[in-house]
Design a protein that fits this description.
By secondary structure, the protein is mainly alpha-helical. The protein is built from four helices and two strands. Strands 1-2 form a two-stranded antiparallel sheet.
């Protein structure tokens, strides 16, 4: 499914320059990675927390060396996407399962490679 997003309700959107608009478009992809459909005043903490978890796992990178900040999230209140928002429990289960599966597979490949060297 294609990602669709709408930033017309983001404060100051009409005065954003091209770089700011590109950053907003990139943030829509972050929302897809964290399975959140929109940024509202009520969900800023959850959006930011999910992003921080994925940054900590090395699965997403912020726009600068400091990663994403709460200020980034607040600046995109009003951004809407066609992403279906998952409950926190479902999202955590999905992400942890995927992360662990990938780590286990990598470790298994390393073990096989090490055995071949012996």
């Amino acid at each position: 499914m294609a990602l669709h997003w709408d930033a017309t309700d983001v404060k100051g959107w009409d005065s954003f320059d091209e770089t700011e608009k590109d950053n907003c478009a990139n943030f829509a992809w972050v929302l897809m990675a964290i399975d959140m459909g929109k940024v509202t005043e009520d969900n800023v903490a959850e959006v930011w927390s999910r992003m921080n978890l994925l940054e900590g796992l090395g699965l997403i990178n912020g726009p600068d060396k400091n990663g994403y900040t709460r200020k980034h999230v607040v600046s995109y209140i009003g951004l809407y996407t066609n992403v279906t928002t998952m409950t926190l429990h479902t999202w955590l289960t999905k992400k942890v399962k995927r992360y662990m599966t990938q780590r286990i597979e990598r470790q298994q490949k390393l073990i096989v490679k090490a055995r071949e060297l012996v």
